[in-house]
Predict the structure.
Amino acid sequence: MNTFLSDTWHLLLRHVRTTIRIPIWIAITLIQPVIWLTLYGQLFRRVVEIPGFGAGSYIQFLTPGVVVMTALFGSAWSGMGIIEDLTEGVMDRLLATPVSRIAILSARVLHAALTVAVQSIIILLFGLLLGARIPGGVAGCVAILWVSSLLGAGMSALSNGLALVTRREETLIAVINFFGLPLTFLSTAFMASELMPPWIRTLARANPVDWAVNAARDAMLGLHWAEVARAGAMLLAFAVGSVLAATQAFKAYRRAS
Amino acid sequence: MDTAIACEGLRKTYSNGVKALDGVSFAVKPGEIFGLLGPNGAGKSTTVRILATLTRPDGGTASVAGGDVIGDPAAVRLRIGYVAQASGVDKWATGRENLALQARLMRVPPAAIADRVRSLLERVALADAADRIVKTYSGGMKRRLDLAMGLCNEPAVLFLDEPTTGLDPETRAALWRDLERLRKERNLAVLLTTHYLEEADRLCDRLAIVDHGKVVAAGTPGELKAQVGAGATLDDVYLAHTGKHIQAAGPSVIGGEAE
């Protein structure tokens, strides 16, 4: 257990170091949510006027949606890092050491969750600047970070698992392009659930992205805490399940090499 | 421990049906530089991967540094250094950071890591570049860092897979000198793979010629040449045992074997 925690920590430091040494990555991380919030905020500004939308300000409605969308896309690319490690021989070098095998995965998943948390804070601050409000207060912010990080952890585990099974960047890119936008639009990230066709509303209930968006929105407003807690628990289960799946993928990878 | 590496009848067929090893056996003594010579696809990398606990053989036995590769890989990992064909260092970290992480994962006591890393950096002449990220290193510097990574835990056995492929002659000669010094200073056993005849001839105490997943001949370079005839070169030896010349491999064929 001690070596698992210590190895996870030191590998996590490696990933954090890599992240902050790629300046273009930091720039994109900062600029992308700003673009989304201003662009979508302007583009869809008047949808709140549709009868039944149920929200007064679109930026208020959109901010948690962008938080969760960023969590989804940021962490879905997490598997690219492990493919780079495979092709550059880093994985073999690690596997020839006594390093805890699970730590190799858990460090990547934690790194994704941590990155999502930092991005979420930036988006919330920018949302505030554009006029969104957080009646949910500190507890609301903590809950938003909780659900977005868990979604990020789960998605990064799935991404890493897929990367270990396919070992190809092209496959990962194709899968993320195929699922990314449908997962986003089968949620209330941009559109109120009341205005969704019933079949989409039904599909959205099985979508972890939708759980996270609804919980983040309620937490931001300080409403429906019981539902926020339930979504938080479901996202925890999603993250744990994804990590277990990734662990199996890693075992299969090591058997096949 | 009078044998550093002993393997017997190693067999491996990959899941895609490629038969990589068909009964490989040899032994390496402490302080010996042992070469596996053969063309790409002969099974050299697979042999090294099995001995370094990265690949499980379908059959056969292997012990490395006194530990059973199949039964107790964790014990073996503590006592070996493995330097793959693909470098395996983190290019976004500095040389010092790479070595410090490797030392930690190799279970060097935390209090000893800083000193160990400093002396390794000096040994491979990277002290001045220690705090630059590896992305800025030249090919030769990267290869010297790879070697230092493999020495972090002061291993009993060092595996080097194609250590000089793609290096210029000067850097190659420097790496040979490093290996000879290490062997003398530390009684280190080195198993290296190569398809360079000159490297096998100059550097290796003994070597095994590998072809189609089998060891077809083994001995000192001198013995192997004497068996074929007076004035024979290693190429003649290779031709006599395999019926073909070893290919003059350039960078274009790097990496054709491992998968």
